[in-house]
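Q: I have 135 residues here and want to know how they pack in 3D. Can you give me a structure?
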Amino acid sequence: MAMTLRTNGDSMIADMNTTPLIDVMLVLLTLLIITLPIQTNAVKIDMPTTPTHSTPPPHVDVTVDFDGTVLWDGQAIDRATLDARLASLAQRTPDTEIHLYADRFAKYDTVARVLSDAQRLGVTHIGFGDTAAYQ
Protein backbone atom coordinates (compact mmCIF):
# COMPACT_ATOMS: atom_id res chain seq x y z
CA MET A 1 0.00 0.00 0.00
CA ALA A 2 2.84 2.35 0.64
CA MET A 3 4.29 4.02 -2.34
CA THR A 4 7.91 4.92 -2.88
CA LEU A 5 9.09 7.28 -5.61
CA ARG A 6 12.54 8.02 -6.81
CA THR A 7 13.53 11.39 -8.04
CA ASN A 8 16.30 12.39 -10.43
CA GLY A 9 18.75 12.89 -7.58
CA ASP A 10 18.31 9.37 -6.27
CA SER A 11 16.64 10.60 -3.11
CA MET A 12 13.68 8.59 -1.95
CA ILE A 13 10.31 10.13 -1.21
CA ALA A 14 8.29 8.10 1.28
CA ASP A 15 4.69 9.22 1.75
CA MET A 16 2.12 7.55 3.88
CA ASN A 17 -0.70 5.97 1.95
CA THR A 18 -3.92 7.57 3.25
CA THR A 19 -6.30 5.45 1.21
CA PRO A 20 -6.94 2.87 4.02
CA LEU A 21 -7.56 5.68 6.49
CA ILE A 22 -10.07 7.28 4.17
CA ASP A 23 -11.78 3.91 3.69
CA VAL A 24 -12.12 3.42 7.45
CA MET A 25 -13.49 6.94 7.88
CA LEU A 26 -16.06 6.36 5.12
CA VAL A 27 -17.20 3.12 6.77
CA LEU A 28 -17.57 4.85 10.14
CA LEU A 29 -19.45 7.74 8.55
CA THR A 30 -21.79 5.31 6.78
CA LEU A 31 -22.51 3.47 10.06
CA LEU A 32 -23.19 6.76 11.80
CA ILE A 33 -25.62 7.85 9.09
CA ILE A 34 -27.44 4.52 9.22
CA THR A 35 -27.79 4.30 13.01
CA LEU A 36 -28.56 7.96 13.74
CA PRO A 37 -32.24 7.93 12.67
CA ILE A 38 -32.89 4.86 14.85
CA GLN A 39 -31.73 6.72 17.96
CA THR A 40 -33.82 9.83 17.31
CA ASN A 41 -37.17 8.09 16.78
CA ALA A 42 -39.72 8.96 19.44
CA VAL A 43 -42.86 7.17 20.51
CA LYS A 44 -45.86 9.44 20.32
CA ILE A 45 -48.27 8.97 23.24
CA ASP A 46 -51.49 10.90 23.59
CA MET A 47 -51.80 11.63 27.30
CA PRO A 48 -55.25 12.45 28.68
CA THR A 49 -55.74 16.04 29.62
CA THR A 50 -57.59 17.01 32.76
CA PRO A 51 -59.17 20.34 33.45
CA THR A 52 -57.03 22.51 35.70
CA HIS A 53 -59.94 23.73 37.82
CA SER A 54 -61.51 20.37 38.65
CA THR A 55 -62.45 19.78 42.25
CA PRO A 56 -61.08 16.70 44.02
CA PRO A 57 -63.59 13.91 44.62
CA PRO A 58 -65.14 13.69 48.08
CA HIS A 59 -63.39 11.43 50.54
CA VAL A 60 -63.94 9.76 53.89
CA ASP A 61 -61.09 9.12 56.33
CA VAL A 62 -61.17 5.67 57.93
CA THR A 63 -58.54 5.13 60.61
CA VAL A 64 -57.60 1.84 62.27
CA ASP A 65 -56.08 2.59 65.67
CA PHE A 66 -53.41 0.50 67.40
CA ASP A 67 -55.99 -1.23 69.60
CA GLY A 68 -58.29 -2.17 66.70
CA THR A 69 -60.68 0.77 67.03
CA VAL A 70 -62.07 1.89 63.69
CA LEU A 71 -62.63 5.64 63.29
CA TRP A 72 -64.89 7.11 60.57
CA ASP A 73 -63.81 10.75 60.03
CA GLY A 74 -62.49 10.80 63.59
CA GLN A 75 -65.53 9.19 65.22
CA ALA A 76 -65.24 5.67 66.71
CA ILE A 77 -67.68 3.15 65.19
CA ASP A 78 -68.29 -0.59 65.48
CA ARG A 79 -68.19 -3.10 62.65
CA ALA A 80 -71.95 -3.12 62.00
CA THR A 81 -72.01 0.68 61.69
CA LEU A 82 -68.96 0.52 59.41
CA ASP A 83 -70.73 -1.98 57.14
CA ALA A 84 -73.87 0.18 57.01
CA ARG A 85 -71.91 3.33 56.19
CA LEU A 86 -69.81 1.58 53.52
CA ALA A 87 -72.94 0.13 51.89
CA SER A 88 -74.73 3.48 51.84
CA LEU A 89 -71.59 5.19 50.55
CA ALA A 90 -71.23 2.68 47.70
CA GLN A 91 -74.87 3.15 46.68
CA ARG A 92 -75.29 6.92 47.11
CA THR A 93 -71.94 8.27 45.88
CA PRO A 94 -69.82 5.58 44.23
CA ASP A 95 -67.07 8.06 43.29
CA THR A 96 -66.29 8.87 46.94
CA GLU A 97 -62.79 7.83 47.96
CA ILE A 98 -61.94 6.01 51.17
CA HIS A 99 -58.64 7.13 52.67
CA LEU A 100 -57.49 4.34 54.99
CA TYR A 101 -55.01 5.23 57.70
CA ALA A 102 -53.66 2.33 59.75
CA ASP A 103 -51.55 2.78 62.84
CA ARG A 104 -48.22 1.01 62.55
CA PHE A 105 -49.04 -1.05 65.66
CA ALA A 106 -52.52 -2.03 64.39
CA LYS A 107 -53.08 -5.71 63.74
CA TYR A 108 -53.11 -6.78 60.12
CA ASP A 109 -56.32 -8.73 60.70
CA THR A 110 -58.26 -5.57 61.59
CA VAL A 111 -57.01 -3.65 58.56
CA ALA A 112 -57.69 -6.62 56.26
CA ARG A 113 -61.22 -6.93 57.66
CA VAL A 114 -61.94 -3.26 56.89
CA LEU A 115 -60.59 -3.70 53.36
CA SER A 116 -62.55 -6.90 52.71
CA ASP A 117 -65.75 -5.30 54.04
CA ALA A 118 -65.28 -2.31 51.75
CA GLN A 119 -64.69 -4.55 48.75
CA ARG A 120 -67.62 -6.81 49.57
CA LEU A 121 -69.98 -3.84 49.91
CA GLY A 122 -68.94 -2.29 46.58
CA VAL A 123 -66.48 0.47 47.47
CA THR A 124 -63.99 0.75 44.61
CA HIS A 125 -61.87 3.83 45.41
CA ILE A 126 -59.63 3.02 48.37
CA GLY A 127 -56.32 4.70 49.11
CA PHE A 128 -53.77 4.26 51.88
CA GLY A 129 -52.25 7.03 53.94
CA ASP A 130 -49.62 7.51 56.60
CA THR A 131 -51.02 7.97 60.10
CA ALA A 132 -48.13 10.26 61.04
CA ALA A 133 -49.17 12.67 58.30
CA TYR A 134 -52.85 12.33 59.20
CA GLN A 135 -52.54 13.30 62.86
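Q: Anything worth noting?
A: The two ends are 83 Å apart (CA to CA). DSSP finds four helices and seven strands in the chain.
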